[in-house]
Design goal:
3 domains, single chain, YbaK protein, alpha+beta, 31 strands
Amino acid sequence: MKTSQLLIPTLRDDPGEAETVSHRLMLRAGLIRKVAAGIYTYLPLGLRVIRKVEQIIREEMNRAGAQELLMPIASPAELWKETARWDYYGKELLRFKDRHERDFCLGPTHEEVITDLFRREVRSYRQLPLNFYQIQTKFRDEIRPRFGLMRGREFIMKDAYSFDVDEIGAKASYQKMYDAYTRVFTRCGLTFRAVEADTGLIGGDTSHEFMVLAETGEATVAYSAQGSYAANLERAEVLPPADVDAASLQPLTLISTPQQRTVEDVTVFLKITPRQIVKTLLYRARTETVAVLIRGDHEVNEVKLARLLKVTDVALADPETVQQLTGAPPGFAGPVGLQHVRILADHAVRGIKNVVIGANKTDMHYQNANLDRDFSVEQFADLRNAQAGDPAPRGPGVLTLAKGIEVGQVFLLGTKYSTKMNATILDDQGKERLAIMGCYGIGVGRTAAAAIEQNHDDKGIIWPFPIAPFHVHLLTVSQSERTTEAAARLYTDLMAAGIEVLWDDRADRAGVKFNDADLIGAPFQIVVGDKGLADGVVEIKTRRTGTKSRIAPGDVVAHLRKLSTEADPSVT
C-alpha cells in the first residue's frame, strides 16, 4: 500500500483528550478517531491491527474446537428477563423500544442469546461438548468511558460459550479455553499473567483474567514472585493474621478529637500509627445497612463485601444515614453501642487490642477499645484489599502488586443460565439434565491498545510483528528518478514475497517521513536514497532496537525474511 493512497492522518502533537500512552499514540498515528464518548472509528491502519488480532483469535479458537457463529447485537428483553438480568445488569445495559413498543437491548454479552439457541437446537448428550464463538461489536453504557479503546462504550469482543454434560467435561472445556487464551496473547507479543478473578455480573464459580502488565493499567494484580499465586485485587485473598497482640487490656477512655475525621487526622492528633485505629464504615447493601470494621492502614474490598452479603454491589452510606444510625457525622462512627446494624469485621481486627475507634459522638473517639469487652462482631471475614508484603494465600512467597490491563477473561458458569432458561439435554439414561456452561471473552481493541502500552518509546509505537499494521515501512528520502525506480522495484518484490509493506511515496521532507515511520511503528524500515544507492545499498532499520544494516537491494527480501522469522517464529 502507498501512503499517498491511504488515509493516515498523523498528528504532530499530543491530543488533549488522551489520558494513556495507547490512547495518545492511537490518535497521533492515525489509527482511530473519536465519534462520541467511548465510541471510535477505526481508520485503515487501526483496522488492519484489529483484523490481525481477530485472525490470531480465530485460529486458536478453531484449533481448540470452537465453532464460529454470529449473533445479533440487539436482543429482546424477554430473554434477559428469564435470567433476571434485565434489571440486575443496571444502567450499563442500553435499552430501547422498537416501533411496536417492544423492549430490546444492545448486547453487552450474549449468554442469554446463546443459551436460547442451545435449548432450541441441541437435545442429546451425544452432541456435546459444544463451544460456540463470535467476534462482534458490543455495547456497554459505561458511566465513565476513558482511555481510548481501554474502556469504551462500543467495542469489538470475541465471546465464546461452552456446553457440557457434566462438571468434568466443563472443566476440560474451561482448560482448553485457558490454554487457547495463553496462545492468543503469546502470539500477539504480550507479556501477561493469568490471575484469579471475581465473576462479577457474568456469574459462575471460577474465573481467570488475563492481565497485560503495564503501569497504565486500571486493574491491580497481586502475585507471588516466588510461587504461582496470582489474582486481581478484587479477588486476592488475605490470610488471617498469624500473630495476636499480647498486650494487656487498658481502660476504655472517651477523648475529644475536634474536627479529626480521617485516619490521617487522628493519627497526627493522637501521635499514633494507623495500625492502632479501627475504622467503622457503614455500607448500603440492597435492603440493609451494615457496619464494617477494618484496621486503619487497610482498605475495604467492596467486591469481597458484596460477595459476603450475596448482593451485586455495595456503596458507602450517605451522610444522612450515618448521622441517623450513629448519632454523629461521618468520621466518628464506631462499634460501641452501635445498634440496628449488623457489625462485620475483617480478620485483622480480631488480632489487635487497645484500639482507637469512633465514639458515635461528634468530635469524639474512644481510646483502648477492645473486642468482646467493649463491642462485639457478628461475623469475621476477609474484607480488605491485599497489600504488598502480605503472605501469599497459597504457595510460597509474599505478594507483590503491579498494574495490569485486562484483555481477556474466562468463566466456569455452571448451571446459572441453563437453570433459569431450562437448557437441558437427554443423558445416556434418557433423563433430562441441565447443560453445564462456560463463557470466555477477549477484548480485541483492548488487546491492541495493551500491546501499545507495552511496546512504545518516546517516538511512537513499536508493534509486535504478528499484529503490526504493516511489517515494513519503505521510505524514499529523495524524489530522484533513480530512488523512485529502486523503491518501486523493492515494493513490488516485497509484495510478491508476501511481505506487507507501506511505501511512503509522498513528496515530503525526509524528517517528516522518519517521524511518521517511528510513530506508526512498523517492525522494520527500509530507507532508499541516492547516497546509499550510489554505494549499491539500502538501509534497513529494526524499529525496536534501532539497529541498522546496509543491504544490497537484491538481498533485501531474504534479509527481511530472516528478521521476520526472528521476530515471529510462526513466519516461514
